[in-house]
Amino acid sequence: MEKLILKLYRLLNFEVEQVIEDDARSVVTTGSIVFGAIVRTAIIMIVGLYLVDYYYFRGNWWVIALALWFLVAFPAYRRYNKFNREVEEFSEETLCGKCKYFDKSSKLCTIYDQHPTESFIPCEGESWEPRNIEK
């Protein structure tokens, strides 16, 4: 039960879990942000339909619209901006960020299909190739 609650918490906070050698880390990707927003929207829509049907809430539709903005759209937007800043810092500070196999949209090493961190490099520098910078 505790693992289910932890997974739901991570999902609602736009995170996914990555397990590397019995070490679980929370990783934020663009997909986890979008999926978290979809789940939050579904929850609010279900609660909204219940309120409309049970309490005759039809005249106060703006409450649901505000809930969608403040509980779904705005947190997802802020998390996406924070994710982009983190990826830019990561790509400037680490070797993985300057590799041509690094995918910025998901912070992923495309060869090894793992999320690198500052302390974990999937290839340990052996498969590193410089990114072609076009002017």
List SSEs in N-to-C order.
HEEHHEE
Number of strands: 4
Structural class: mainly alpha
**Main sheet specs:** 2 strands, antiparallel
From the spread of the alpha carbons, the general shape counts as elongated
How large, in whole angstroms, is the Cα Rg? 19 Å
Overall mean confidence score, pLDDT:
81
Q: How would you describe this structure in keywords?
A:
135 residues, two-stranded antiparallel ribbon, 10% strand, mainly alpha, single chain
Protein described:
With 135 residues, the chain is mainly alpha-helical. It contains three helices and four strands. It has helices spanning 2-12, 30-55, 61-93, and strands at 16-20, 23-27, 102-103, 108-109. The chain has a two-stranded antiparallel sheet with strand order 1-2. A two-stranded antiparallel ribbon has the order 3-4. Helix 2 packs antiparallel against helix 3. The relative contact order is 0.11. The mean pLDDT is 81.
List the helices and strands and how they pair.
Elements: H1 2-12, E1 16-20, E2 23-27, H2 30-55, H3 61-93, E3 102-103, E4 108-109
Antiparallel strand pairs: 1-2, 3-4
Helix pairs in contact: 2-3
Write a short abstract of this structure.
The chain is mainly α and 135 residues long. Helix content is 52%, strand content 10%.
